[in-house]
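Hi W.,

Here's what went into the run:
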Amino acid sequence: MKAQMKTSPKRVLAFPPIVASLAWLCALSASGSWGSAQREQAPRPATSDRSDDDADRQERLALGKRAFEENCLMCHAAEMAAGQRLTSAQWTTEVDKMIGWGAPLPPELKDDLLAYLTSSFSPSAAPAALARIKLAQALAPIAPEPNLPSGDAARGAPLYVAQCANCHGPDGRGAELGTSLVEKPVLNRPSEFSTVIRAGRRRMPGFDKVLTGAQVVDIFAWLREQRSPSMASLKQ
Amino acid sequence: LSKEMHREFVVRLVRLPFFCIVDSSTVTEVFPEQRPMTLPSPDFYGVDTAHSRRRWLERALSLAAGSLALAEMRPMWARAEGDAPQAGLIVRSSRPLDLETPRSALATWRTPNDLFFVRSHLGEPAMGLQPSTLSVAGLAVKPLTLSLEALRDMKQVTVPAVLQCSGNGRSHFSPTVPGLQWECGAVGNAEWTGVPLADLLEKAGMKSEAKHVHFLGADAPPNPKTPQYLRSLPIEKALEPTTIVALAMNGEPLPWLHGGPLRLVVPSWTGNHWIKWLRSVAPAREEAPGFYQQTGYRIPRHPAPPGAVVKPEDLIPLTTMNAKSLMAWPTEGARLPAGKHALRGVAWTGPGFVKTVEVAIGADGPWQRATLENDERPGTWRVWRFDWDARTLGRYEIRVRATDSNGDTQPDTTPWNRSGYLWNGIEKVHCEIA
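Here's what came out:
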């Protein structure tokens, strides 16, 4: 856990230059919101003592859990892993598949993630507790909010390019670090959209010091105009 | 026990005929068509939360302690808590949304929309960013884009059909396989209303070289490296009169979480063909390219031993469902009084229809015919019922198996496959006559 609280400047700088201001970047690293920035790069010293081994393992599992939260939960709910009971080989196959599909897991965290998944959700683990939900309740998180702000998509376009495109892709369809925003239910939910932009979420930093409320609304308007790839545009 | 609490309890007990079932002659009341196991309306309590119902049940149970008559009802109450449809769907994944229907809600011919299972690959698209349309392009002489209104103006047909996730029952495979660990309720039967796909293809003038039809929904992937959920059907299946683009489900506009406003309905074929939020249809020469058609949803041509890695050329596309049945009542671990009990559930298959359902009481018990309701109609399912006169106290293993019009019957165990598709092993439910 100790290592988790540390922030290595070297690791922060190893990240793609996705932020506009250096001052803001420093604020970010101080707030410790970068997942892969949490781990020391130096190899761990070999240990002979059993308690050291245990501590090492606990640290590894904590890092793996954090890697899970920051790199898997951007698309999945935690139930995805908690509901499965897989061997180490099977988890490796699944994680490799997701990396191939664009999961932004830093390569140096893969072993920790696998250690966490394998130790928590192995074939010998107890069955998962299952929640229940009414269909109407399940709709609530994607239901449109009643009022839409009137932003200016033309003004939003350059703001999107400057602040969002590095992670979410020039067309909003997702890129190395951010998921697709195109035609997503959040585009009917201006309050949620604005909250996420202001406060950040998982590996995404908050933009409250970078974007004004009106600018957020303009970006929102631009994103609402973007469309998913059509069948004709897919390679047939 | 305060006088007030006692009165409240008695009043509620009177209003709960469902709890008073100790004789199976009234079991059908538990499963009225479309409204299985209805608790009294929330108005009666003046509350509307599962939580307060549960609190009430707990209180009622504690009140009942010491009463022989009430003790006999406990199993029913316990079941209502554990498996009751009132608690809603079972959450397998809340994002993307994957919800399983509780077993006890699968005792009727029509599965209500709000208890129908939900399966999503890539997450729901936003509602209403643009008017919903359906395009028919690809190898079409006159490519079309149709509005919902235009689709509603075309000839509508209603097709009753079972929708089942190909991974339904995946949790029963051993060794375990990755994927959603559905137990039995990734299945439901609904009446789907919409436009035959053949009519749309005819309207667009399909070119003769088309041998497949590609489909794409509005649910886009989260990342450009994630494959689109692009799928195809061979032309023969696409042109079957019961393959439709549905606009309604059980008489309601198709709910958003079930793929509304437009979803492909492909009776007798697994749910992976039933494209949700359908947006594009394109006749083509070849099968759809991409992961979901070329790699996913494939099964070994010949059964392989558990854990075996099968070469891609020995995998074939998953298409049709197989003969299967489930027991909606009693549920696992039920404790029942001696007497007559009406066992009940549903049975379905791929092409053809269910011909017989048999029940075996006791691990070595003989197979006995169950009564089948509903028509011998391909694509949909049949409700089965078996009257069991349970006279001897003890624990029982109850099995049920379906045989279809092709003569296919359920095996004890379905051949293992690495993705856990098409489980149709015979169910074993354990209960106690006490």
